[in-house]
Amino acid sequence: GSPGPSWAALAKDGEAVAIGGMSLFYPNVATLWLVGTKRLPECAVAISRMAKKSISGALRDGQLHRVHAFADSRHKRTHPWLRAIGLKDETPLPKWGKTGADFIMFSATR
């Protein structure tokens, strides 16, 4: 996909602990992504606020009509977070991962 909005989360000491954003999957549809270090929990509240604000703003302003995210079904801590930032469980994706892991698609739509 094409680059979309992105952000970085810095710990109080200035070290980057996470990067995230939305990549355009195709026009008006974006894939949400996030990569973090072990220190990500230090910035979890700020990351959540930024993600939720970015998603709701892009949908509200008409920049996007859909945002989705793919989560490994075994990553149980990720699922409540995706719901908390405004995404809903959409569909299971059996054997979708590169190693055959099951995934779940979450989405938010306008």
Write structural notes for this entry.
- The chain is an alpha+beta fold and 110 residues long.
- 22% of the residues lie in helices and 40% in strands.
- The chain is built from two helices and six strands, in the order E-E-E-H-E-H-E-E.
- The chain has helices at residues 44-60, 78-84, and strands at residues 6-10, 16-26, 29-36, 66-72, 88-93, 103-109.
- It has a six-stranded mixed beta sheet, covered by helices on one side.
- Helix 1 links the parallel strand 3 and strand 4 (66-72).
- It is globular, with a radius of gyration of 14 Å.
Q: From N to C, what is the helix and strand string?
A: EEEHEHEE
Uncertain runs with pLDDT below 50, 5 residues or more?
Answer: none
Helices, by number, come to: 2
Name the beta content range: 35-45%
Largest sheet: 6 strands, mixed
Instruction: Report the oligomer.
Output: single chain
The gyration radius over C-alpha positions equals 14 Å
In whole angstroms, how far apart are the ends? Answer: 20 Å
Strand order of the largest sheet: 1-2-3-4-6-5
Helix content: 10-25%
Mean pLDDT: 94
Total strand count, please? 6
What structural category do the secondary elements indicate? alpha+beta
